[in-house]
Write a structure and sequence with these properties.
14 helices; mainly alpha
Length: 264
């Protein structure tokens, strides 16, 4: 069992490596994509500078904590979209019979599919996240925690995308559902949780688990709490297991379109 998991992780890392090498053949485009993403993220900080010039505290967050929030949100998004880009278009893959080429490979179908391409601009998100961490105040402990929380949060984001995308096995054209769910995960992640109340806040820690991918990591980075850390890691394992379970169950219903395209 452990050997199989290790082999699948190795396959995923190799897929990402070769995808990166492929994209770096055009170095100018590669550098521009990364740079413009960093600048795009940085532009949103201007609104927070203006807001904090009027008020010292917003939703219980200081300005530095908002920078940390943006850093974690960006790094989580970047990790998810860089390493598992195809997870966010899995509905299209299912609906158009593009899973055929993954079915004939001696690898896990889901992992082969979602790691078959990378999003270069997401590297800019990852770098931006660490720039925010540097501004917030970087230590060895913060660096390790930030990296671990970004990866665990990214895996939850990917799992949510897979779960929503896998609905296409049953519903058919469920692209809009998946796109809406993925967009909500991004839009709520960059606002302090203190501004949300009642049912909205409950949803952000359950149905739309931004609270687990972004808010709890900020709390952990601000003041380490083993309970919150355990919740984040356990949630990550739960969502990964659920994503694999739903996808594999749906795969049994999959109808091939005879679209055989070789994946190398």
């Amino acid at each position: 069992m452990l050997t199989a998991v290790k082999n699948q992780i190795k396959v995923a890392l190799l897929s990402t490596k070769y995808g990166l090498m492929r994209e770096m053949t055009n170095k100018v485009t590669f550098i521009m994509d990364v740079t413009f993403m960093i600048l795009n993220n940085a532009s949103f900080i201007i609104q927070w500078i203006i807001l904090y010039s009027l008020k010292d505290d917003i939703g219980g967050y200081t300005f530095k904590q908002v920078l940390l929030l943006w850093g974690i949100a960006a790094s989580t998004y970047g990790f998810a979209h860089f390493s598992f880009k195809k997870a966010f278009s899995i509905s299209d893959t299912i609906n158009n019979g593009k899973l055929d080429s993954y079915l004939v490979q001696p690898k896990n179908v889901l992992i082969s599919c979602i790691t078959s391409d990378i999003q270069v601009s997401a590297i800019g998100d990852i770098l931006y996240g660490y720039i925010m961490l540097l501004i917030y105040g970087i230590t060895i402990q913060n660096f390790i925690l930030f990296s671990l929380l970004s990866i665990s949060g990214g895996l939850i984001v990917v799992s949510i995308a897979v779960i929503l995308g896998s609905l296409s096995f049953w519903i058919g054209k469920s692209d809009s559902i998946a796109d809406t769910g993925n967009d909500l995960m991004v839009k709520f992640a960059t606002y302090p949780d203190g501004i949300f109340k009642g049912i909205t806040k409950i949803l952000l820690f359950t149905l739309i688990p931004v609270g687990i991918t972004t808010y709890m990591p900020v709390w952990i980075m601000t003041e380490f709490n083993i309970t919150y850390m355990s919740i984040v890691l356990a949630s990550s394992a739960f969502f990964i297991f659920t994503a694999f379970s739903i996808f594999n169950r749906g795969l049994k219903r999959y109808s091939s379109s005879n679209l055989m395209i070789s994946k190398i």
